[in-house]
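Practice record 12: protein with pyridoxal-5'-phosphate.
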Amino acid sequence: MRYFSTRGDEAVALEQAIMSGTAPDGGLFVPAEIPTMVDGVADGEAGAINVLASQMLAPFFDGSYLEDELPAICDEAFNFAVELRAVEDADEYWSLLELFHGPTAAFKDFGARFLAACMSRIVTSPAYARGPATILVATSGDTGGAVAAAFHRQPGIRVIVLYPDGRVSTRQEHQLTCWGDNVTSLAVRGEFDDCQNLVKAAFADRDIARRYNLCSANSINVGRLLPQTVYYAWAALTSRRNHGVDPNFVVPTGNLGNAFACVWARRMGFPVGRLILATNANRTIPAFISSGNWEPRPSIATLASAMDVGNPSNMERLRDLAGGHAEVVQEVEAISADDAQIRRMISDTWERHGVAVCPHTAAGIHAMREAGGPGSRGRDHWIVVATAHPAKFEAIVEPAIGSSVPLPPSLAEILGWDASHDTIAPSLDALRAYL
Ligand SMILES: *Cc1c(COP(=O)(O)O)cnc(C)c1O
């Protein structure tokens, strides 16, 4: 399989698309075609998720020197549970797709672990002439933790994470700074944008970029999107077997990486019904769906902070795949929730079902209800994607439900480790000292 930029027609191999992140023309890499699953994959049993992953992703790895490694990559990346949790009472019956059972308790573990498994094989392959790589990533919280955890002790790769000093939660900071070895996390005196600008400046400096073989691991990397198709396929097959209908999915959305993978899974032939993008008060996507005008705007801070995105990059892939606005609205719907609605859904879901959810997931539950769900048993079935464990956002969730949220074991383990970090000024000279 070859990979094309959304903005041009120069094709590259999978390894190159993974290592370069963004296409040279500024576009995003997409596969030459979305393979339709045959041989019972799209209408069979879901089975074990690592096995399904390896079956589904094989056509995307066709012709790559990673092809033979794909089963091992999938075993490494999909080594924790995915769960469909039934939520029910006398009037309603729906499911949460829990994607937070990985090391850092958010769905980004899937993409980060898969990317790490691919990249470590690429940089240590004789076919790759550029030697060890340095991954430089700016984070407002979740991405950096998932990337640090996934690349920790991977051969041939160093990781430098930049985060805004004093602007991530205590637990998030711990997840960023407890690794050591090949992972360095630096607090930058500034905001997330200063971190992002520093990363851009380093990549733009040809000497630095070449000398340290800088690579990115951000969410537009095709190596993060591909593995995300797998849990949609798994959940759609499992749900159809249990309920006899193609389930509707609601996906809490920021940069549109997670939800876009669901669009690919449906194109591959997996039984996905309606797809609702749930946003917070950052309404760029819902506004586009209703007006047809694409108007990125500055991001607004909300309770669902990992979705505070005013210019969702993966929209470029969705528009490229679908065509125009008329086709995009055939693929997806979009509904936003403000902070009051998010808070209300956290407490309602607790009171009604005894289930604690994170603010992002709460935006999804709000969207499901606005979209006419959930149905009763035997009619339609709704799946809301639970993107993070509520204990990651305890400062918001615990007051809303009036109860404490126990830490999942993986997170408790990480929080028990020692952590330390340096703080730097937002300048390239200060960063250079750590490269
Ligand atoms: C990153 C993130 C999102 C948003 O995912 P996108 O792929 O950017 O749309 C939602 N919820 C949580 C908890 C996240 O970490």
